[in-house]
Design goal:
Protein name: AraC family transcriptional regulator
Distance between the termini: 66 Å
CATH topology of the largest domain: Jelly Rolls
Main location: other
Low-confidence stretches: 171-175, 284-334, 342-383
Number of domains: 4
Radius of gyration: 30 Å
Strand content: 15-25%
Keywords: DNA-binding, Signal, Transcription, Transcription regulation, Transport
Helix content: 40-55%
GO molecular function, one term: DNA-binding transcription factor activity
Family: Belongs to the bacterial solute-binding protein 8 family.
Mean pLDDT: 80
Length: about 650
């Protein structure tokens, strides 16, 4: 088929009324050897695996993996195996050109009817087509009206991709480059779950072979390249829109905005918020988008990652595709506020040093005013009013009894000790275990919060998890003494409460709460170990519509409750891996290896009854024995002391009723 012919066919497809009639996934094995059809409608055949000889009304085609064959209604199609098995998809459709079409279209149809034409070709980008075919098959099996509509939409994408590749190849059979295919697939599907295993399977390569080939061709690992693409897309959204970080994270494939922020920092060297603020200060030219980002994917100063960094919980439902223009003035306002405040403070003497290295650090007027208000009636001995806390940023001088705390993490720990912060990010205020206690806490904005709002609150102490964003830490430190505690530094609830008890002047409250906690945990543990046989294993799994994840003892989803508090164990074969990595994405093939005798499952979309109907899940002993506890993410995600205690007793109640 020449280029002109392909273009004419595209014109006819563009004018046709299309109805998808059926989508079938077939496997032909040696026990049958051949199969014959009289096609009931126009049909695409997509070869997924294996080789076969196909005859279309006597015309023979040698079909290899990813080849596409097409023919019209009434065609006799004979399929003969040339290997042990042949896996393929059939897509039946009906196309009609409206009677009201102009004469040119009618003449083209008479000249060559693309809906009846028999042909085959090998796509130059087959994995894009394989993904569309699999999605069509998945949607078709669900039978609802919306799913039928989605199948039709996917079919249009499939036909468009077929004709685009016909044009690219000019109808010729080309040897395809798997590295180029993988790059193209990542560019088109970066917001979707992508794993090495899935790409290797689609391209029919082993994971090591594909990884080595991709690295040789591009200089990057597949996962490195995927992260680069996602971060470059995110950078554009940060500059061109005013969307919240959470929305941007989801739009490029990351469900957790904190994890997204850490990856962005590794790629660009600064946090997403600071990147946006920095770009907002640079004059932009509307018709010169290249000046906004100023880098292509090949030019980024990229840091290396372990492959597992890609596999974080992903959520594509509700992803926004339309954005309002960005508002660069917000960052400029923040900088102006800081400048004015620092200028006002320039004449103040005696501000405490932020770090023990002797360098004088400026503090905000709000912080100074707040301290003077609190100490005006107190003795003049400053040592009784402050203390020095050792952190990853050095020794920090903080109030001995802070009263106005802004925290972007560790809210549950503060509430446990009877301390209510004055400000916190909205995301944490959704924690169901402490919602009531936070109802009067000021929302300082998305994820880490707005510097502008923090300034307005005039805190005397800021608590943050951020440690790798030095620029943000410096900004926070100018507002008030800032304590940075990286995630994972405090290994358990005992360490966490002991640290914060000292920081907040609540050491006795911490000891009392821990004593009660350990008493209740011991009681729950005793109940559980009376009914759970020795040696039974437990798995912490999260299941979304598209992905599965398994977790260790310090990453939420019930891990702290099950492994740390109740002392239960994961399957022995995976215990070391979980302890080291804390979470992994699971393929369907690996589920049985990671599934324990009991499963604590986080899922917003599945119930135990759903699992029993699923061929994969129903084969697990835990499902067969009803040893699966399903809860939604709002109850399993949090792991502050209050949440862990509640989760532990909740799981213990379930286990003792088994």
């Amino acid at each position: 088929m020449d280029v002109k012919g392909v273009i004419e066919h595209i014109m006819l497809w563009n004018h046709a009324s299309i109805k998808v009639l059926d989508v079938r996934h077939q496997l032909l094995g040696r026990e049958i050897g051949s199969r014959s059809y009289k096609l009931p409608a126009s049909t695409f055949l997509f070869a997924a695996q294996g080789k076969a000889q196909i005859c279309l009304d006597g015309s023979e085609y040698a079909i290899k993996p990813y080849d596409i064959a097409h023919s019209g209604k009434g065609t006799l199609m004979d399929i003969f195996l040339t290997e042990d098995a042949f896996e393929y998809y059939l897509i039946f459709y009906r196309a009609a050109i409206p009677l009201t079409s102009r004469q040119q279209i009618v003449n083209l149809l008479r000249k060559s009817d693309p809906f009846q034409l028999p042909y085959s070709f090998q796509p130059c980008q087959p994995i894009e087509l394989l993904a569309l075919v699999k999605q069509m098959d998945e949607q078709w099996q669900r039978t609802g009206e919306l799913e039928r509509f989605q199948t039709k939409a996917l079919f249009y994408q499939f036909v468009s991709a077929v004709h685009r590749q016909l044009l690219d190849s000019k109808g010729a059979r080309l040897e395809t480059d798997p590295a180029a295919q993988a790059k193209q697939y990542i560019q088109n599907h970066y917001a979707e779950p992508i794993t090495l295993e899935a790409l290797a399977e689609m391209l029919r390569y082993s994971v090591p072979h594909l990884s080595a080939l991709f690295k040789k061709k591009t200089g990057y690992s597949l996962i490195d390249y995927l992260i680069r693409v996602r971060m470059e897309k995110a950078a554009s959204l940060l500059v061109e829109t005013d969307r919240q970080l959470r929305e941007i994270a989801e739009s490029v494939g990351y469900r957790d905005p904190y994890y997204f922020g850490r990856l962005f920092k590794k790629v660009y060297g600064i946090s997403p918020a600071r990147f946006r603020a920095t770009k907002a200060q640079t004059p932009q030219t509307a018709d010169r988008p290249a000046t906004i980002i100023g880098s292509s994917i090949a030019a980024l100063d990229f840091r290396r990652y372990i492959d597992s960094e890609n596999h974080y919980p992903y959520k594509k439902e509700g992803r926004k595709t339309m954005y309002r223009p960005a508002k660069p003035s917000a960052a400029a306002t923040v900088m102006l506020c800081l400048t004015l405040m620092l200028a006002a403070c320039s004449g103040n003497a005696g501000a405490p040093s932020q770090a023990a290295n002797g360098n004088q650090t400026e503090t905000s007027a709000a912080s100074d005013a707040n301290r003077s208000t609190q100490t005006s009636s107190a003795p003049a001995d400053a040592s009784s009013q402050t203390q020095v806390i050792s952190t990853v940023k050095g020794d920090v001088v903080v109030p001995a009894a802070p009263r106005r705390i802004v925290a972007d993490q560790y809210l549950g720990t503060l509430i446990t000790l009877g301390v209510t912060p004055i400000g916190a990010p909205g995301l944490h205020r959704q924690n169901p275990y402490i919602t009531e206690a936070l109802k009067n806490v000021e929302d300082i904005g998305d994820v880490n919060g707005s510097l502008e709002k923090v300034i307005d609150l005039q805190p005397d102490l800021i608590v943050t998890e951020s440690s790798d964003d030095q620029g943000r830490y410096d900004q926070l430190s100018k507002i008030a003494p800032t304590i940075s505690i990286p995630y994972g530094q405090l290994k358990n609830i005992q360490e966490e409460l002991t640290f914060f008890g000292k920081l907040l002047g609540k050491e006795q409250e911490a000891k009392d709460w821990l004593a009660d906690y350990e008493k209740r945990i011991a009681a729950a543990k005793e109940r559980v170990h009376k009914v759970i046989p020795e040696g039974k294993s437990f798995s912490i799994i999260e299941l979304t519509d598209k992905q599965m994840f398994v977790y260790g003892d310090n990453f939420g989803r019930g891990g702290q409750a099950v492994y740390q508090a109740l002392g239960l164990k994961p399957p022995a074969a995976i215990a070391k891996t979980l302890q080291e990595k804390q979470w992994l994405e699971l393929s369907s093939e690996l589920l049985s290896q990671y599934a324990g005798d009991y499963i604590i499952l986080t899922s917003n979309s599945h119930t135990l009854e759903d699992l029993k109907k699923d061929p994969l899940w129903s084969s697990l002993d835990a499902v067969k024995n009803n040893h699966v506890y399903v809860w939604k993410e709002e109850r399993s995600w949090y792991y502050d002391p209050i949440a862990v205690l509640s989760q532990t007793e909740e799981i213990a109640d379930w286990l003792t009723k088994q």
